[in-house]
Amino acid sequence: MRLSRQVKQRVLAALMNQPCTRPSPAPAPAPAPTTLLSRPPPYAPPSTVTFSTMNKNTEQEHLDAVFKQKRALRSRVRKALKAMEPDLRSQEDNAIQRIILESPWFKSSRRLCAYICCSALREVDTSKLLSETLSNPTGDGHTQRGKILYVPRVEDKNCHMRMLRISCIDDLVANSMDILEPAPVDGDGNVREDVMLANEPVDLFLLPGLAFDRSGRRLGRGGGYYDTFLKKYLELAKARDWKQPLLVVLSYSVQIMDEGVIAVTPNDIPVDALVSPIGVIPISQTALDRMKL
Ligand SMILES: Nc1nc2c(c(=O)[nH]1)N(C=O)[C@@H](CNc1ccc(C(=O)N[C@@H](CCC(=O)O)C(=O)O)cc1)CN2
Ligand SMILES: Nc1ncnc2c1ncn2[C@@H]1O[C@H](COP(=O)(O)OP(=O)(O)OP(=O)(O)O)[C@@H](O)[C@H]1O
């Protein structure tokens, strides 16, 4: 669906401001950035052992139970996000983005995949991160060269999503789910670069989701788009002998779950770190090494 210029300007204005339903007052001081939260537990990727020792029926029953738990948790978290006060949301959006913008691992990243936040889905705002990534800054010693940004484009309902390169936030059109995404061809008629066909690796993924925990579990919206994409991308990086990307989720406080609350299947890709309004939680050894925490 192509949006009229006027509608698109409204959507982009909303995206670049805050996804609140009413104007927010002056933001309260945000918590100190780049705080390292509690010591990370040992990295515990979802186990596949249970599955390999099960017969087909038991395996199916187990999967059904996992998907049921996932659905129940999604609906609980959606309610919690809906109940969040707009002012608090706005403060948390600012705090999370400030932590990321000031971090060495973001400043030094060159090739990123990030989501275009959708206010209707009550996702953590990424507008400042996207602007910074696309602004091609120079002069702070770290960012002599600009960053390259890829964003998601849903191709079909069979978990198929691509990450396409954009150079300007204006390039985006709303899809059937009302999420802004790039057309396959840019305004000059050039086919956009698909990250799976790029010659260089991505260093950083900024990922959305509904719920997360301190051992790297991530509950998405149930489409399987990110897990499917990440599996293929991680395989590509391994095959090319590239450094693996850092997988970082952005999370409001209410989206962080206790251990054991998020059910997982072997398809769920664990993340390396979590950024919440009160700091970064590094999870994997990669995060500890690369985020210099
Ligand atoms: N900003 C953003 N872009 C993204 C994703 C995302 O989660 N966030 N995706 C990540 O996969 C892909 C799109 N997948 C999506 C999957 C579900 C819904 C959605 O509207 N879910 C509703 C419930 C719909 C239902 O169950 O009937 C919701 O969660 O409230 C949106 C996008 C690609 N782009
Ligand atoms: N690597 C994969 N290959 C094929 N199908 C997959 C893969 N990962 C997930 N799926 C399928 O996607 C559907 C949704 O999976 P799940 O509930 O784990 O998604 P999610 O983690 O909520 O979503 P997302 O990955 O988009 O954030 C399931 O039917 C699952 O079988």
Automatic annotation (TrEMBL):
Gene Ontology biological process terms in this record: folic acid-containing compound biosynthetic process; tetrahydrofolate interconversion
Pro residues bias spans: 22-32
Gene Ontology annotations for the cellular component aspect, listed alphabetically: mitochondrion
Catalytic reaction equation(s): (6S)-5-formyl-5,6,7,8-tetrahydrofolate + ATP = (6R)-5,10-methenyltetrahydrofolate + ADP + phosphate
Signal peptide range in chain numbering: none
Cofactor(s) named in the record: Mg(2+)
Top-level taxon of the source organism: Eukaryota
Spans annotated as Disordered: 19-46
Protein EC: 6.3.3.2
Keywords: ATP-binding, Magnesium, Metal-binding, Nucleotide-binding
GO terms, molecular function: 5-formyltetrahydrofolate cyclo-ligase activity; ATP binding; metal ion binding
Family, as annotated: Belongs to the 5-formyltetrahydrofolate cyclo-ligase family.
Protein name stated in the entry: 5-formyltetrahydrofolate cyclo-ligase
